């Protein structure tokens, strides 16, 4: 069980040797750790301490439909970081659902309002209208970060809890891996929730948000394969990818703007800046418009992905703005209000927000416009 917990966390013996110098002897059975040491080891490997007393390793599964694939094979073993992130979001969603019902909020009509048989262009137009997504307004925004922030604000105003974080909870030592997952959706008529892996690029997060919103309109929770050039075999993922691409870059408009005779890289960069999406999305839409064959698309995709991975990542900004983004402004405001009114215990509020200081809670309230 000790070896299982270590491997589950992706850790080698050498990486834990400093804190647990007798770990190799524990794993071989030559020595036994004390209860205190077991508790420390469980914390270091992000494993529930009770698991270490089981007779054999448990089979851990993602608690929502998992559509992620690699080489058309379903991914089997979720990391502790992924599992803990989903559990945290489910706890927040449960709280907000109760809050919404208590305060008399009505179910949101867009959740589950579309079906897999819905036309992609019509579906994208429905999402664009409900969100108030103005393509010309987005074009005028200066950066991808500005465009993503505006997109999140529009989803938040509609009633979606959009949580963006690159770490588990507020633990900056547990960075989420975009290669494992980019986002997920938790469909609910009172508390629809989208989580976006903030360790991904801003431009890539735009497509992830669009994809997960499509899941909400279907009324289907999912952990998704959201890469714009991915080739999912699941009907739900195919439809959500198509709707996301059409929502962000309408094919009719792309055909008007695309200059076939221009050099590809320069044209991709120009259109990415114009539509405020990743260059990978633009490559996919050029292919959809007939400008690239499938083989040309994959070749250009691999080259562009290699270039993007070499780019430096930006750093975090203001702590309280970042915190509100991590838990969703809508959720944070509701939780602060409920706590100040005495409906939620400070202890529970701090736990869901992911910090321990009461002063931080009050400063967050002030930054959200609540004295």
How does this structure look, described?
There is one protein chain. By secondary structure, this protein is α+β, with helices and mostly antiparallel strands. It has three domains: 52 residues, no CATH class; 193 residues, no CATH class; 49 residues, no CATH class. The protein is built from 18 helices and eight strands. The strands form three sheets. Strands 3-7-6-8 form a four-stranded mixed β-sheet, sandwiched between helices. A two-stranded antiparallel ribbon has the order 1-2. Helix 12 crosses helix 13 and helix 15 packs across helix 16. The longest helix is centred in the first third of the chain and has 23 residues. The chain starts with a helix and ends with a helix.
Q: How would you sum up this structure in a few lines?
A:
With 371 residues, this protein is an alpha+beta fold. It has helices at residues 2-8, 13-16, 23-28, 35-44, 80-102, 120-131, 135-140, 144-158, 202-218, 235-248, 251-257, 264-275, 279-288, 294-309, 319-327, 329-340, 346-353, 358-367; strands at residues 69-70, 73-74, 161-165, 167-168, 171-175, 183-186, 193-197, 222-223.
Oligomer: single chain
What percentage of amino acids are in beta strands? 5-15%
Q: Tell me about the biggest sheet?
A: 4 strands, mixed
SSE pattern:
HHHHEEHHHHEEEEEHEHHHHHHHHH
The coarse overall form would be globular
- Mean pLDDT value: 89
Share of helix, binned: 40-55%
SS field, number of helical segments: 18
What is the radius of gyration? Answer: 22 Å
Structural class: alpha+beta
Total beta-strand segments: 8
Number of domains: 3
Q: CA-to-CA gap between the ends?
A: 49 Å
């Amino acid at each position: 069980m000790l070896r299982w917990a270590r491997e589950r966390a992706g850790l080698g013996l050498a990486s834990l040797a400093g804190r647990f110098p007798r770990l190799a002897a524990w794993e071989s059975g030559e020595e036994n750790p004390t209860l205190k040491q077991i508790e420390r080891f469980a914390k270091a490997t992000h494993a529930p301490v009770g698991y270490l007393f089981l007779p054999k390793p448990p089979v851990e599964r993602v608690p929502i439909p998992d559509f992620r694939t690699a080489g058309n094979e379903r991914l089997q073993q979720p990391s502790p970081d992924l599992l803990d992130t989903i559990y945290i979001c489910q706890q927040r969603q449960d709280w907000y659902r109760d809050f919404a019902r208590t305060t008399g909020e009505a179910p949101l009509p867009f959740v589950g309002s579309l079906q897999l048989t819905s036309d992609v262009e019509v579906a994208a137009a429905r999402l664009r209208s409900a969100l108030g997504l103005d393509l010309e307004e987005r074009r005028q925004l200066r950066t991808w970060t500005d465009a993503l922030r505006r997109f999140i604000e529009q989803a938040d105003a509609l009633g979606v809890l959009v949580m963006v974080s690159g770490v588990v909870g507020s633990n900056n030592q547990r960075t989420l891996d975009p290669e494992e997952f980019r986002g997920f959706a938790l469909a609910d008529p009172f508390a629809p929730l989208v989580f976006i892996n903030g360790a991904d690029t801003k431009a890539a997060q735009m497509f992830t948000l669009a994809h997960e919103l499509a899941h909400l309109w279907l009324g289907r929770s999912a952990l998704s394969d959201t890469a714009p050039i991915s080739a999912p075999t699941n009907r739900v993922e195919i439809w959500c990818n198509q709707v996301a691409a059409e929502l962000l870059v309408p094919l009719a408009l792309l055909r008007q703007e695309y200059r076939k005779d221009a050099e590809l890289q320069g044209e991709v960069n120009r259109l990415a800046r114009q539509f405020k999406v990743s260059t990978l999305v633009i490559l996919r839409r050029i292919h959809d418009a007939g400008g690239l064959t499938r083989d040309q698309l994959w070749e250009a995709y691999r080259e562009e992905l290699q270039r993007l991975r070499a780019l430096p990542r930006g750093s975090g900004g203001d702590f309280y703005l970042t915190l509100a983004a991590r838990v969703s402004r809508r959720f944070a405001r509701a939780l602060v209000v409920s706590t100040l009114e005495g409906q939620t215990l400070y202890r529970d509020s701090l736990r869901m927000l992911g910090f321990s200081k009461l002063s931080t809670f009050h400063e967050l309230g002030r930054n959200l416009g609540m004295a």
